[in-house]
Amino acid sequence: MNAHRIFSPILCAVVALAITGCATPANKEAMTVTGIQIARQHDGSVSVKTSGGVETGAMDSSSISNADFKSAIEASITQNKAFKSVMQGKDANYELLVSIMQLDKPVFGLTFTVNLEATWVLVKLDDRSVAMKKTIKSSHTATVGDAFAAVTRLRLAVEGAAKKNIEQGLQEIGALSL
Amino acid sequence: MKKMSFIIALLAAATVLSGCAVNRATATVDPSADFSALKTMHVVKIPEENAGIDNLIADDLRRRGYTVTTGTDKPTNVDAIVTYVDRWMWDITMYLLELTVMIRDPQTDFPVATGNSLHTSLTRKSPPEMVDEVMTNIFKEQQK
């Protein structure tokens, strides 16, 4: 019996599985913004809604889910005191609607640059007036130095683009006179 | 033994390859978007794109009753600007892997709606099918 002939295809299969791997979704902690200076911290409470996110399938590339994006935005607002408090439901003073319009991810390469475009709409709930309506574009690049495995590199690029988008969004909110 | 190792390799390959069929179609519409107010649209053609995706999108919108022009410019005297991003892959032949279409306010470039369709090689769709899927999802979403 030739051991080489038995184990070669098995070894090839194992290597293939290792390289292919499984994509994981963008992590909400990795997308959370901390320690930034905001021009103005607003009194009042805010509730956050997100849309346009997608779940990451087993063989899909890393994406941002609505739930994780919402959690990251809420945590970022809290940690940077953009508003006095974050609430769930319709009892807040303001409602922040963040929609992921485009998440442009590369398919392969050594360097992954992910581009994210999201709309940020802040509505004052007592009169439904729109306090802010902006498109925020962000971008993040992950290299082989950040992660050797392509699936991890892509996830880092997605998380970085989301984190930058949240930071810019908070800065825009901080620039408002509410 | 030779047969067994071949079967093992085949099973492993099937495990890897069978999961590679990814299909996704999504649409997001700004809650304040009012499509009933839109009559004229302009599809912004990507200069280096030669697959005619701009014309496919324009034809689809015309079938839905809109007056549509195409070109590489971005006019402001229309009700909406339509942009797209097409991503192609090669697998024996070239195929359209992913298509994203965005409808924007021509004055502010604010995206009022976006639709995305992704189909990997094993479940690939033709460009007209992808365009139809994306546009149908956008218009379905705005009716919600």
How would you summarize the topology of this molecule?
The complex is a heterodimer of chains A (178) and B (144).
Chain A: H1 3-20, H2 28-31, E1 42-51, H3 66-80, E2 83-86, E3 94-104, E4 112-124, E5 129-142, H4 150-174
Parallel strand pairs in A: 1-2, 1-3
Antiparallel strand pairs in A: 3-4, 4-5
Helix pairs in contact in A: 3-4
Chain B: H1 2-18, E1 23-29, E2 40-44, H2 53-63, E3 67-71, E4 80-91, E5 93-104, E6 111-119, H3 127-142
Parallel strand pairs in B: 2-3, 2-4
Antiparallel strand pairs in B: 1-6, 4-5, 5-6
Helix pairs in contact in B: 2-3
Write a structural description.
The complex is a heterodimer of chains A (178) and B (144). Chain A has 178 residues and is an alpha/beta fold. Helix content of chain A is 35%, strand content 29%. In chain A, helix 3 (66-80) crosses helix 4 (150-174). The longest helix of chain A has 25 residues, at 150-174. The model of chain A has no long low-confidence stretch (mean pLDDT 88). Chain B is an alpha/beta fold. Chain B is 31% helix and 35% strand. Chain B is built from 3 helices and 6 strands, in the order αββαββββα. Chain B has helices at 2-18, 53-63, 127-142; strands spanning 23-29, 40-44, 67-71, 80-91, 93-104, 111-119. In chain B, strands 1-6-5-4-2-3 form a 6-stranded mixed β-sheet, with helices on one face. The model of chain B is unreliable at 14-19 (pLDDT under 50). Chain A binds chain B through residues 1, 5-10, 12-14, 16-17, 20, 51-52, 54, 57-60, 97, 99-102, 104, 107, 117, 119, 121, 130, 133-135, and chain B through 1-2, 4-6, 8-9, 11-13, 15-16, 19-22, 24, 26, 28, 30-32, 85, 87, 89, 97, 100, 102, 108-111, 114, 116.
